[in-house]
Write a structure and sequence with these properties.
By secondary structure, the chain is an alpha/beta fold. The chain is 32% helix and 29% strand. The longest helix has 18 residues, at 183-200.
């Protein structure tokens, strides 16, 4: 790790779920650190624990054992109400299944996190202007009054990206953001997500099983059967920088 500020830190995270046929252990002692502004990809086969880890990083769930810190603060010990308030202010989440409100139009969906901060009061003109700007940025400025059912899957995901960014969060979490999209649409969504992350210098953590998505990130963490088996730094791709670079990993380190 470099001398940049550590934004997220997991220490020996464990998580299991009680199922009808017994307890299933999903995470088995995950430790990692993520720096401010870093772009990290979490990879692994289905069932490896990727989404569960992302949920713990975002405070959507709490570990069965171990500790989760945000800027050195014990995130895992906070009550849900405090974690929810922190997420609304500091964390933007892009879900694989979009999770848009079907009865709200595009603009209203993007403004939902603002409403949560205002305790469901009406967002002001500045917030509405920012929502329109973000929707313009992802190519949906002409779709403000459309409802989710009137959009394609790619368009819905781009609404999700704008929604995740509306409160200018320090942390962006994306769970299989292109899992339901065709390759061309998925690449457009990733272009939006990574360029907005770079422009705003925000930490980005992406869960995927897609190596081409991983190639865009600065670091790739591999999970296998609930354990972290590798953590590798990666040279930026030529696509991202415009400068040809060797595609192989350049150094290897395992966080502890």
């Amino acid at each position: 790790m470099s001398d940049k500020a550590v934004l997220l830190e997991a220490r020996d995270l464990e998580k299991s779920y009680l199922m009808p046929k017994g307890r299933v252990e999903v995470l088995k002692g995950i430790s990692m650190r993520i720096e401010a502004g870093e772009q990290v990809c979490i990879m692994g086969a289905s069932g490896a624990g990727k989404s569960t880890l992302l949920h713990l990083l975002g405070g959507l769930d709490t570990p069965g054992a171990g500790e989760m810190y945000v800027e050195g603060q014990p995130f895992h010990r906070w009550p849900e109400s405090r974690r929810a308030a922190f997420r609304a202010r500091r964390i933007g989440i892009v879900f694989q299944s979009y999770h848009l409100m079907p009865d709200l139009n595009v603009l209203e969906n993007v403004l939902m996190p603002v409403r949560s901060l205002r305790r469901w009061g009406s967002p002001g003109p500045r917030a509405r202007d920012e929502a329109r700007r973000l929707l313009d940025r992802v190519g949906l400025g002409h779709r403000l009054t459309h409802r989710p059912m009137e959009l394609s899957g790619g368009e819905q995901q781009r609404v999700g990206i704008a929604r995740a960014l509306i409160n200018d969060p320090d942390i962006l979490l994306a769970d299989e953001p292109t899992g339901n999209l065709d390759a061309e649409t998925g690449n457009r969504v990733l272009d939006d997500l990574f360029s907005l992350s770079r422009e705003r210098k925000r930490c980005l953590v992406v869960v995927t099983h897609d190596p081409s998505l991983a190639a865009r990130c600065q670091r790739v963490v591999h999970l296998e059967d609930g354990r972290m088996v590798s953590s590798k730094t990666h040279l930026p791709s030529a696509r991202e920088t415009g400068i040809p670079t060797h595609p192989e990993f350049t150094s290897t380190s395992t966080d502890s």
